[in-house]
C-alpha cells in the first residue's frame, strides 16, 4: 500500500505519475472526439493508414472485434476510447502478444516474455490484466520455456473479454458514433 510521500515505493510513485498525466489529459478538452485518435502503427517501417474508414468498413466493427483490430484507424480509435476510460491495459496486452508472436530469436523471445509477464500478468503488475487464476497458472507454466504460443490462452481470454465488454461500450461511445455519421 502507498503511505506517506517520503516512503512511497517506486511502483506507487509511477502509478501516481500515471494518474497525474491521465488527469491532465482529461482536463484538456479537444474540439472533437476525432482529435483524440492517434493512429497505431504496428510496423514502424511502413506508414500508417490514417485515412478514415468507409462507412461500411466502420459498421463491420460493431460485429467483429477482429476487423476492428486489423484496421489501423479502428485500432487507434478503440485505443483512444479505452484510454479515455482508463482501461487500455487489455488492448495493450493483446498488442504485446501479437508483437511477441513475430519474434524469431529465442533470446529476444525470453526477454519479451519476461517483460509481458511483469507488465501485464504478475500480481500487482503496472498494467495487470484481469485473468482468472487458472489462465494465469497455465501462462506462468508455459513461460518456463517460452514459445510463440506461451500467451495464447491468456490472449484468447482477454480477446473474449474485449469482445464481450469493451467492444459494445466502444460501439455506443462518441468515438464510434462520430465515425459512422
Q: Can you walk me through this structure?
A:
- By secondary structure, the chain is mainly alpha-helical.
- The protein has a domain at 55-178: Regulator of G-protein Signalling 4, domain 2 (Orthogonal Bundle).
- Helices cover 60% and strands 0% of the residues.
- It has helices spanning 10-27, 55-60, 65-70, 72-84, 89-100, 106-121, 133-142, 152-172, 174-179.
- Helix 5 runs antiparallel to helix 6 (106-121).
- The protein is globular and about 50 Å long.
Gist of the model:
This protein is mostly helical. It has helices spanning 10-27, 55-60, 65-70, 72-84, 89-100, 106-121, 133-142, 152-172, 174-179.
Instruction: Work out the oligomeric state of the chains in this entry.
Output: single chain
Per the CATH scheme, the topology name of the domain at 55-178 is Regulator of G-protein Signalling 4, domain 2
Q: Which structural class best describes the helix and strand composition?
A: mainly alpha
CATH architecture of the domain at 55-178: Orthogonal Bundle
Largest sheet: none
Q: Give the class-level CATH name of the domain at 55-178.
A: Mainly Alpha
Specify the overall morphology: globular
- Please estimate the helix content: 55-70%
Q: Classify the beta-strand content into a percent band.
A: under 5%
From the N-terminal CA to the C-terminal CA, the straight-line distance is 46 Å
Radius of gyration from the alpha-carbon trace, in angstroms? 18 Å
Low-confidence stretches: 3-8, 25-48
Number of strands: 0
Order of helices and strands: HHHHHHHHH
By DSSP (H or I, 4+ residues per run), the number of helices equals: 9
Average of the residue pLDDT scores:
82
- Fourth CATH level, the homologous superfamily of the domain at 55-178: Regulator of G-protein Signalling 4, domain 2
